[in-house]
């Protein structure tokens, strides 16, 4: 495995462990705000830790968007996505193993921070709302990623606004879908919960990818001609 793929697997592992782990172990204490900050902090820290190695996509939708925007070579798409999904699965497995370490164990009916809509949405939001939220918020994430990593942006600071954007996205959408905007983050927990989580998983793969493409195309539309040509 190339080093950049290994970096993506590690980064996605940390993202899922930090964000979903906080949701599973401590959501009652930290609430929506705390879980949102956990996801944002993990992305921020990984941006500086592995950004120089792989670009710190740690999200298949982000990789797709960056390919569409011409920032990532399409030959790396499969390697990045596979590594990200594997990282998410390993992290979800670790969370489940730790959560099962109490006398009562862990009831997978708790969801392991899986994403869902309808009766599995924290706020009872239906399928149309879930799709709309995931598409729009993933587009927002891609727009921020592309803008802050533009060659004209201040060098060395991209991790901070991207991490803050992910925090904001979670504050908006945890009540709607438990927030995906990242297929790898959704696939990991769903594989352990199975049942309804797998049945609804298609939304949290398709909608973020569509949103990423929308975000990439929107950013290309607002680029200055000189920047778009480079």
Topology (SSEs and partners):
Elements: H1 3-54, H2 60-68, H3 77-99, H4 127-148, H5 159-177, H6 183-193, H7 196-222, H8 225-229
| Estimated radius of gyration | 17 Å
Would you tell me the structural class of the helices and strands?
mainly alpha
Summarize the amount of helix as a percent range: over 70%
By DSSP, the count of extended strands is 0
Task: Give the SSE order as H and E letters.
Answer: HHHHHHHH
What coarse outline follows from CA principal-axis ratios? globular
Distance between the termini: 30 Å
Strand % is under 5%
Return the average pLDDT rounded to an integer.
94
**Biggest sheet character:** none
Count of helical regions:
8
Task: Identify low-pLDDT runs.
Answer: none
Task: Write structural notes for this entry.
The chain has 230 residues and is an all-alpha fold. Helix content is 73%, strand content 0%. The protein has eight helices and no strands. Helix 3 crosses helix 6. The longest helix is centred in the N-terminal third of the chain and has 52 residues. The chain starts with a helix and ends with a helix. The mean pLDDT is 94.
